[in-house]
Every structure is written in C-alpha cells, then in structure tokens.
Amino acid sequence: MSTNTSILLALRNWEFEHVRMNKLLEQLSDEQLLKEVAPGKNRGVYLLGHLTAANDGIRKLLDLGGRLHPELDQIFLSVPDKSVPEIPATPLLRAMWKEVMDKIAEDVQTLSDDEWLSKHTAVSAEDFVKEPHRNKLSIILSRTVHQAYHAGQMALLK
Amino acid sequence: MSTNTSILLALRNWEFEHVRMNKLLEQLSDEQLLKEVAPGKNRGVYLLGHLTAANDGIRKLLDLGGRLHPELDQIFLSVPDKSVPEIPATPLLRAMWKEVMDKIAEDVQTLSDDEWLSKHTAVSAEDFVKEPHRNKLSIILSRTVHQAYHAGQMALLK
Q: What ipTM does the predicted assembly reach?
C-alpha cells in the first residue's frame, strides 16, 4: 500500500477515469456502442474491447500477475476495427471490462512506494538505469491518459 | 525545480500530451479544424479554444501569475459551441494555444516539490486540511487527462 502523496494522487486520477468510463457505459445502450464514433471511424464496441485488452496488460507490466483475457489482443489490439468478422457480444465485452478493471483496482492497492518507482516488466534492468522514468507509476499515468483519449471519442455516441 | 521522481513523471506526462497535441495541430488544416468532430458535435476550433482557455487557467491555479487570455472564457468555457456568432480566426487561436502552452511549460519548472504538494489557489486553507489531495500536482494530472479526452475527439478530424 502506497503512502506517498504523489503516487496516491496518480492512483486517484486513474480511479476517477475508471468511474467516468463506468458511468458512460451505463449511459450507452448496446445498440449505441455498435455505432461508429464518427463516420468511418472506430465503433464503440471496438474501443471498449481495445481499452479492456490494453488495460488487461497493466497487471503484467506491474508484475502483479498474468492476463485475464489475452484472446482479446488479436481482435482489439493487433488489428483495426472491422478486420475480424465476429467480435464478442457487447454484454460479454461489458463483463470483461468490469472483470479486468475490478481486478486492477484491487491489485494496485498492494504495491508499496518502492515498487511503484521500480521498473515495469517490459523494460530491461540495463535500460532502466538509463531511463529511470520507465517505472510502474509511469504505466498508470500513461494508461489513464490512453483511456481518457478514447473516452472522449466514446462520449460522442451519447 | 522539482526533484521528486513521481512529480517529474507527472510533468513528463503533461509534456507528452503537449507534444502530441502540437503534432495533431500540424496535421490538421484550418479548414479541417472548422469541421465538427462528429455530426452535430463540437468543431475542432471550439475544442482548440476550449483547451487554450482551460489551460490558461492553470498558471493561476498554481499561483504562477495571471491569465494571458481571459477573453476566451466567454466563448469557449461558459457557452457551448456555436453560441457565439463570431469566434477568433483559427490562425489566431493556434497562436494563443502556443503562447499559453509555452508559458506553462516554462513556469512549471520553477515550482519546488513542496509547492507542488501545497494547495492550489481555488481551494481554501480550511478545505485543504480536509482534502489534502487538492494540491497543485492534482491540477496537472487532471488537466492532462482533460486535454487527452478532447485530443481523442480532435484526432477524428484527420
């Protein structure tokens, strides 16, 4: 459990975005999520799957455990929207989002201040010496921004 | 000048979003910025003015000085898009964005770690005792997310 004010603030910022996305998902029907956020752009369901897959990688980067849904990557991370003929049904995507985000919320509480400032799992010990900003805290900061970027797009479906 | 790793990381995250928006603005023509990000939604120019006005308030919240362009508020903060018959020309908005963001980038370098963790100017000393997370660092974190939210929308104009 972190006690550092700045780290707690970053986690608070992350949690705030989590709550905002949950509210948005409550406001959007399955039918609305199937629409493109703008003509010719990604559909809401793709962005929901994309964020679920991207955020599912966080626990691994923080060395907190394995992926819950690695099968999402080939549909929502490796390829653009509309590349795969069939994607998981929207209620299932909503359930996976909840599962992934609730697990992160629980697990990030276990990291100490020193752990937050230690390297994330995708950077080597050698590179971390040269680039000490590539720590676990940087993952939460950058993923908060990533989620907000797509939340802005999904909000256009309202 | 801050030396705290977590604070420097938050500033790095802010600067990263600044660079990303500058790149996006280079990619978008004045004509593209005049379009709505999705049918019936805000125009790119409105979001550019909105972010410029919102970010222009940051230095005041961080107790670093007055507003550079308070006149933007009544066009881009107090009212929705298309409420005002005439808004500043897009080249002028681009120039104000650059002016505001360059000034913030310069000024945030002067704050010490203790100053970052001290209250921002919109919270009273009494409330800050009860809500110590309402510090200057929280402003940078929340405004980074705010900018990313609208950057995602403006990127749809590409």
A: 0.97
